[in-house]
Specification:
By secondary structure, this protein is α/β, with parallel strands linked by helices. It has twelve helices and eleven strands. Helix 1 packs across helix 7, helix 3 runs parallel beside helix 4 and helix 4 packs parallel to helix 5.
């Protein structure tokens, strides 16, 4: 089984590729720049240069593939970029996969996406359209909606660690009473890998999160305890952060955007359906162990 992975040079992508190669599966990666993919090359991954917005490169990438794992997404930018990269890019990839006779399509979506939230921000609106494109494709498929993905080498957790370790106070967004359910990046990768050939997963959408669901207040206390630091916490109202984000969200490395604040305000970011745990029977890394690994 040859597996095409998009987004293979991002944060989650290399972990997915590693899980596939550990199974000795042939992996192909769609990359925009070969120079950023030296680790993939070292793992024996076949590289195809291209982009989800380029239908020609997608046809070349899908040719001979048995399965696709689609991880490409953006988190900020103008609305037209979300439409071009996420929505049209997914439709392009679905069409190329269909033409190539791909057997299974595994899509990365987002926890918190539902009928109520789908029109709140461009990110959720785009993820909704991506899911629709996959469901309506006629392809055998599996869709995952992951919670916050934690890892030592990327994502948001290293930023949290730096804040807890070096900031004079720990800034907590809003009242800190909303819950989150972080999942370790290698557990996410394992879900994607197992989804390729698990019959019970076919045609289904799964919410995935870790085994713990603390409030933000509890999360920051556990992180600081793990790091052995004592820092007071301060709650920053959403309204204050929204003004700051309006001024800084277009800058490289901006900590938060107004859309991300909107998503945080929507409520708890936790799994509401236990189907993933029941179906995949995957042992998950507890939150305290996640924090120890990232410390």
């Amino acid at each position: 089984m040859t597996v095409l992975v998009t987004g293979a040079t991002g944060f989650v992508g290399p972990h997915v590729v590693h899980a596939l190669r550990a199974r000795e599966l042939p992996v192909r990666a769609l990359v925009r720049d070969r120079s950023r993919a030296s680790r993939l090359t070292a793992w024996g991954v076949d590289l195809v240069e291209g982009d989800v917005t380029d239908s020609t490169s997608l046809r070349a990438a899908c040719a001979g593939a048995d399965a696709v794992i689609h991880l490409v997404a953006i988190i900020k930018g103008p609305r037209e970029d979300f439409e071009r990269v996420m929505v049209k890019g997914t439709r392009n990839l679905v069409a190329a996969a269909h033409e190539a006779g791909v057997r299974r399509f595994v899509l990365a979506s987002a926890l918190g996406l539902n009928e109520r939230s789908k029109d709140t921000v461009p990110y959720f609106a785009s993820k909704w359209q991506m899911e629709l494109a996959v469901r309506e494709s006629g392809l055998e498929h599996v869709i995952f909606r992951p919670s916050f993905i934690f890892g030592k080498d990327g994502g948001v957790l290293p930023t949290f660690v730096r804040l807890a370790r070096y900031a004079p106070v720990t800034p907590i967004v809003g009242p800190g009473t909303q819950r989150l359910q972080p999942i370790w990046v290698d557990d996410v990768a394992e879900y994607y890998a197992r989804a390729l050939d698990l019959p019970q997963a076919t045609g289904r959408t799964f919410e995935i999160g870790g085994p713990d669901a603390p409030t933000w207040n509890e999360f920051w206390e556990r992180l600081k305890r793990t790091l052995g630091v004592r820092r007071p916490s301060v709650h920053v109202p959403f309204s204050v952060l929204r003004v700051q984000a309006a001024l800084t969200e277009w800058l490289p490395g901006s900590p938060v955007t107004r859309d991300q604040l909107t998503m945080l305000e929507l409520g708890d970011n936790v799994v509401t359906d236990p189907s993933a745990v029941e179906t995949f029977q995957l042992p998950l890394v507890p939150l305290d162990e996640q924090l120890r690994r990232a410390a």
